[in-house]
Amino acid sequence: MKTRSVAAFLRTRTTLTILAVALAAIAVIAADPKEPAKIDPGPVGGPPSDAIVLFDGKDLAQWRAQNGGDARWTVADGAMTVNATGSIMTREEFGDVQLHVEWAAPKEVKGNGQGRGNSGVYLQGRYEIQVLDSWENPTYFNGQAGAFYGNAAPLVNPCRKPGEWQTYDIIFRAPRPAAEGDAVEPGYFTVLFNGVLVQDHVPVKGSTTAAAFKGAVQKGPLVLQDHGNPVQYRNIWVRPLN
Ligand code: MG
Question: Which residues surround ligand 1, an ion (CB under 5 A)?
Fold first, then answer.
């Protein structure tokens, strides 16, 4: 090869490389055209600035009784406590969400199995992430704390002692209602319990047992269960993901 043609070949190769890099950069920019919204994450445990605060420790304005009227759980010292007045539900309804809930089982241990520190967080009033005192309290695995009740046991048991505050961070993708005769498109649960993964993209196909609401819907209320035990809740917030 002559000197001149070698130089021309190298120039062409360099030009092609530059062109390829430029095209790749354009493709990346074109596929990612929107700047993510800036939000304030707030203190550890939230709420972030774009969340809907469902309970900030002061009142039950965002809630009503599932059996009718205003929610009547006891509010004191920045927490709400189950008090045998029935389950409560949000006034607003939700589809796909990120949900943060903090709860504590009664410090005074009473009962065992499903009778100890039982409550629950129902997405769309249908799909329960079980709340239970699962500290040295054996029960069926898909009924312990962090279970998708009746469907999926938690991957591990990171439950703290009764009386200590615990966190649930729940990412819920709702099942999609189908035309009559068609199968419902499943939804998914991903759940962190005290920061530990316990449900990993688990399918949500149908209603769980003991749910008052049935069938797949676009939106439904969040429900906190009164199972007869004085479980406490605080710092509840939600971010719709639609
Ligand atoms: Mg329950």
Answer: 118, 120, 225
Hey, what are 207's tokens?
């209603």
pLDDT over 70 percentage in the chain:
96
pLDDT at 209: 64
Question: Quick check: 232 and 103 in contact, CB under 8 A?
Answer: yes
The CATH number that domain 52-240 falls under is 2.60.120.560
CA of 58 to the centre of ligand 1 (A): 24
Q: What is the tens place of the pLDDT at every residue in 63-102?
A: 999 999 999 999 999 999 999 999 999 999 999 999 999 9
Q: Sheet harboring 63-65: ordered strands across?
A: 63-65, 88-94, 220-224, 119-123, 127-131
Locate tokens 């030009």: which residue?
A: 15
- The alpha carbon of 6 and the centre of ligand 1 are apart by a number of angstroms equal to 77
Q: Where are the domains of the chain?
A: 1-34, 52-240
Q: How far is the CA of 220 from the centre of ligand 1 (A)?
A: 18
